[in-house]
């Protein structure tokens, strides 16, 4: 049961991160409503950019293709449609290309008119917010790539805290994740101190093992030229300047 629960929760919430500091607090999952740039700035909505020629062709053909190939997964169907589009002749693509160009001309005019109605301050705010969002998107991409590298290179996973260990002993049953976490947090606060201490002791032991394994992994990353994956603490910077033969694990 515990293994099934761990898999279920890690898929949806990555519990080691979500529950990092939840020992004394109710677990509340917050989901922010996504806003457009203009909504964030309180401006009228921008004209909608037209779909590319390929996307318009794709949307026009996807239902028929899926009915003809029900055995394929969505990913496989999308790949096959992409290959079909690539192999179309220029004349076969012409209809969709012309359709896109017409819609793009209309869009460009609407966009130009829209920008003329904005004040210089509003235009500056819109440009700044666009840049901010682009920077945030790039940072998210870098984090995803780093996470992927960490996984492939075997970075030790943080074992979580006492509450995380307790959570894995529970049976979620059919409860929604949010309700389950809130219930578990309430149950945790009602546990006897002796039982709570047992989980704390286990978490402490797990943390000590994790720290040692992480230290070894980070030293290996430095030796292999992947210091970009290592925490930027001064003691690790010292390791970079230390000859490999003199590197020693800390005594237990």
Automatic annotation (TrEMBL):
Residues 47-115, 156-218 form the HMG box domain. GO terms for molecular function: DNA binding. Residues 47-115, 156-218 bind DNA. It holds the Pfam family HMG_box. One of its GO terms (cellular component) is nucleus. Keywords: DNA-binding, Nucleus. SMART domains: HMG (SM00398). The keyword Ribonucleoprotein does not apply. This is HMG box domain-containing protein.
């Amino acid at each position: 049961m515990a293994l099934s629960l761990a898999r279920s929760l890690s898929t949806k919430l990555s519990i080691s991160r979500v529950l990092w500091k939840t020992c004394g607090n109710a677990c509340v999952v917050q989901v922010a409503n996504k806003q457009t740039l203009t909504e964030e700035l309180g401006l009228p909505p921008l004209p909608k950019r037209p779909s590319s020629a390929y996307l318009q062709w794709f949307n026009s053909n996807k239902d028929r293709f899926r009915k003809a190939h029900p055995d394929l997964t969505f990913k496989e169907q999308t790949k096959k449609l992409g290959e079909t589009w690539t192999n179309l002749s220029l004349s076969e693509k012409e209809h969709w290309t012309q359709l896109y160009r017409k819609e793009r001309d209309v869009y460009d005019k609407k966009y130009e008119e829209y920008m003329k109605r904005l004040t210089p301050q509003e235009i500056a705010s819109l440009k700044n917010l666009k840049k901010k969002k682009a920077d945030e998107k790039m940072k998210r991409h870098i984090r995803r790539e780093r996470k992927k590298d960490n996984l492939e290179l075997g970075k030790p996973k943080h074992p979580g805290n006492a509450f995380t260990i307790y959570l894995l002993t529970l049976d979620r049953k059919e409860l929604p994740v949010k309700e389950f976490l809130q219930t578990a947090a309430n149950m945790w606060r009602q546990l006897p101190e002796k039982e709570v201490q047992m989980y704390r002791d286990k978490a402490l032991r797990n943390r000590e093992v994790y720290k040692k394994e992480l230290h070894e992994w980070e030293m290996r990353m430095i030796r292999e030229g992947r210091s970009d994956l290592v925490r930027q603490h001064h003691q690790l910077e010292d390791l970079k300047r230390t000859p490999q033969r003199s590197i020693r694990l800390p005594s237990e």
